[in-house]
Amino acid sequence: MTIVDVLRRNRDQYGDDVCLVEINPEERANRHVTWKEYELIEPTGAQPYRREITWSQFDEKANRFANLLLSRGVKKGDKVGILLMNCLEWLPIYFGVLKTGALAVPLNFRYAADEIDYCVGLADITTLVFGPEFVGRIESIAETLCQGRMLIYVGQPPCPPFADPYYEITASASSEDPNIPLTEDDFAAIYFSSGTTGFPKAILHKHLSLIHSCRVEQNHHGQTKDDVFLCIPPLYHTGAKMHWFGSFLVGGKAVLLKGTKPEYILSVASEEKCSIVWLLVPWAQDILSALDRGDLKLSDYDLSRWRLMHIGAQPVPQSLIHRWKQYFPQHQYDTNYGLSESIGPGCVHLGVENIHKVGAIGKAGYGWETKIVDENGQVVKRGDVGELCVKGPGVMTCYYKDEAATNASLKDGWLFTGDMAQEDEDGFIFLVDRKKDVIITGGENLYPVQIEDFLNGHPLIKDVAVIGLPDQRLGEIAVAIIQVEEGKTLTEEDVNTFCKQLPRYKRPRKIIFADVPRNPTGKIEKPKLREIYGASRLVAAQNAG
After folding, report:
1. Of all residues in the chain, what percent are helix, strand and coil, respectively (each to 5)?
2. Handedness of CA 418, 424, 427, 430 (dihedral sign)
3. How confident is residue 308, by pLDDT bands cut at 50, 70 and 90?
4. SS (H, E, C) 218-249
5. What is the three-class DSSP state of 477?
6. C-alpha distances in angstroms, 390 versus 137, 215, 342, 415, 418?
7. What is the secondary structure of 157-186 as a DSSP string?
8. In this model, does residue 13 exceed pLDDT 90?
9. Residue 444: pLDDT band with limits 50, 70, 90
10. What residues are paired with 391 via a beta bridge?
11. How far is it, in rounded angstroms, from Cα 190 to Cα 396?
């Protein structure tokens, strides 16, 4: 069974049921429109507040796009890039690509023009689908992109002259299923790594990875046909899509929310009767801060169907979950760990029954194995820190066209994650830090995540990042970048006093009050921070102090 077979089954069993809803919260004044009406809207630039499609329409749109691609020469094994913001078209286009036997290649919407050009070349993309937000970036590299490639524009007119208009060219394509034979062993997708150490790597996955991620997510969170999943993170990333896969597997409805403000999340969860919401740490923090300030009142919303809040993509402060449960005591909570190399979340998960272990990422997920090893690849004693490795049906085939990187990360079927971790006496795994982010100060190893977790316990700290920067005497020192809660005041002396609870060697040597940058999947952008607060700036600050 492949993931496109699941779509066919949903079409046959639940054809008239709504499967996807798109909400544009900035456009509340605009009426609800059908998909067909949207295609005929004049180019006013306005978006409707709400759009929806059924499983039959989803499958029809996927078939039309698949047949359009096949008629233009796309064949099994080709690569089709998808550069879109979250929208109702995103997933039917993705499945249309898969129905041809080609590989879907989602691209990060934050990529600059040179990064788009690089990824298109690295992944051997022959067709690129893009939205109106990217016209300027695509236009700047169109001369090279158009050489031997088809570009398809998904948006209201006018269509750029170097591209074909999606709505026009798919309208006349056949709605019949092309029924290209596929097995779990066929290649399905290329995803890109976060690119935190330079240009991203291309990660090759088979259909087996995709269908396994459906089973993992549904096994972990027990989605039923009646659940409604609120999807906020970007669909280009494995995290958002693979969490949706749990609902997809049972024919459940999903809501794509285009916005992350606390009032948007709560109002849409209320209006659409959402039962499962996956949040990133910053969004959960923003909701709690808004409730603390009284900007939002829970009594204004009907959240009675919301049963599960889960978080992934980055370490979760224990203090955040304790605060969350004060406002939402009825919520089940789970955290999920995964990488694009392991087809997103779920290779390790906490489990809703283990909230007493908040702070851990959990144990091996459904169908997965884990181990923690030292620098020689030997399993460490329980309690010791080592590199987390995972093994299972969702591990990538390879880094596409990068044998050296593949050999460094894949050994005997085990994926070496680059994350440092330790296991407690009950077998629960705790993330310590990224291997490359470990700070060595005066010969001692410091794990920034541990310091960040401690600092997040301060009631006036909204977000924090700890990085290592060069020091002549100690080699490196720990520097804490602290984002203070809105409207609150915190001093360096306050922070240093709070940190006296830490062993002396773990205390940050420098405090900087500033915003903490995070990428679209919620991960702290530590390379950016190291660049901003580099050696010369730090030395100058130390001398001034």
Report:
1. 35, 25, 35
2. negative
3. very high
4. HHHHCCCCCCEEEECCCCCCHHHHHHHHHHHH
5. strand
6. 37, 17, 8, 5, 11
7. SPPPTTSEEHHHHHHTS--S-------TTS
8. yes
9. low
10. 369
11. 9
Kindly report the CA angle at 539 between 538 and 542, in degrees rounded to 5?
A: 85
Q: Hey, how many other C-beta atoms are within 10 angstroms of the C-beta on 32?
A: 11
236 vs 216: CA distance, rounded Å: 19
In the CATH hierarchy, which top-level class contains the domain 3-218?
alpha beta
Is it the case that residue 544 has pLDDT exceeding 70? no
Burial of 125-147, coded b for 16+ CB within 10 Å and e otherwise, reads: bbbbbbbbebbebbeebbeebee
Tell me the C-alpha distance between 207 and 3, whole Å.
Answer: 7
pLDDT score, position 443: 58
C-beta of residue 288 within 8 angstroms of C-beta of residue 320: yes
The whole-number average pLDDT for the span 161-172 is 95
Selection from 87, 104, 75 nearest residue 3 by Cα = 104
- Cis amide prior to 158 (ω within 30 degrees): yes
Domain boundaries, the chain: 3-218, 440-544
pTM (two decimals): 0.83
Per-residue pLDDT tens over the stretch 201-224 = 999 999 999 999 999 999 999 999
How many CB atoms are located within 10 Å of the residue 242 CB? 27
The structure tokens 């306050």 sit at 494
Q: Quote the mean pLDDT of the chain.
A: 89
Say how far apart CA 461 and CA 455 lie, in whole Å.
7
pLDDT digits (tens, 9 = 90+) for 488-500: 999 999 999 999 8
Would you state the pLDDT for residue 90?
Answer: 97
Instruction: Return the structure tokens found at 207.
Output: 């259909």
Burial class (CB in 10 A: 0-12, 13-18, 19+), 412: exposed
- 């997933």: which residue's tokens? 91
Task: Return the CATH number of 440-544, one of 2.40.400.10, 3.40.50.720, 3.40.50.800, 3.30.300.30.
Answer: 3.30.300.30
Give counts: helices (H), strands (E), the chain: 18, 27
> What is the spatial distance between Cα 52 and Cα 50, in angstroms, rounded to a whole number?
7
pLDDT at residue 511 tops 90 = yes
Cα(479)–Cα(531) distance, rounded to whole angstroms?
13
